[in-house]
């Protein structure tokens, strides 16, 4: 997912999200389970996403307040565009006994509850990842 600021009256553009394979299924090997207020949340870690996103359905279920934002146009990994509106601030997310606080734009996600993008990954610093060890 990639996000862009828009002129007044138009949705923002150039934000990217890719949470599905070619068959419309979530890539399970890219997802992790976390907790928000002791509620399980399925998370996709996506280094191609510029921002963090949270499912509109999850936000509504939790009854959270949403800060109004300008519409953000999102370029999805499958080439389609969508629009996100609203942001949840200071979400306390528990990942493997470690608590992090994030902001996330509200978006209609399917099959997952949250996308953690570069805005979450970048502060983690340098990492060494050997994807070949998965073979």
From TrEMBL:
<feature type="compositionally biased region" description="Acidic residues">
    <location>
        <begin position="1"/>
        <end position="16"/>
    </location>
</feature>
<feature type="region of interest" description="Disordered">
    <location>
        <begin position="1"/>
        <end position="23"/>
    </location>
</feature>
<dbReference type="InterPro" id="IPR021109">
    <property type="entry name" value="Peptidase_aspartic_dom_sf"/>
</dbReference>
<protein>
    <submittedName>
        <fullName>Uncharacterized protein</fullName>
    </submittedName>
</protein>
<dbReference type="Pfam" id="PF08284">
    <property type="entry name" value="RVP_2"/>
</dbReference>
């Amino acid at each position: 997912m990639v996000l862009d600021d828009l002129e007044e009256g138009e949705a923002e553009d150039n934000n990217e999200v890719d949470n599905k394979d070619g068959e419309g299924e979530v890539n399970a090997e890219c997802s992790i389970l976390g907790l928000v207020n002791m509620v399980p949340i399925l998370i996709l870690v996506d280094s191609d996403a510029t921002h963090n996103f949270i499912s509109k359905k999850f936000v509504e279920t939790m009854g959270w307040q949403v800060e109004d934002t300008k519409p953000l146009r999102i370029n999805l990994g499958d080439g389609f565009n969508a629009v996100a509106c609203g942001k949840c601030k200071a979400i306390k997310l528990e990942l493997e006994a470690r608590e992090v606080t994030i902001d996330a734009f509200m978006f209609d996600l399917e099959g997952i509850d949250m996308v953690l993008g570069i805005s979450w990954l970048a502060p983690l610093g340098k990492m060494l990842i050997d994807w070949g060890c998965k073979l």
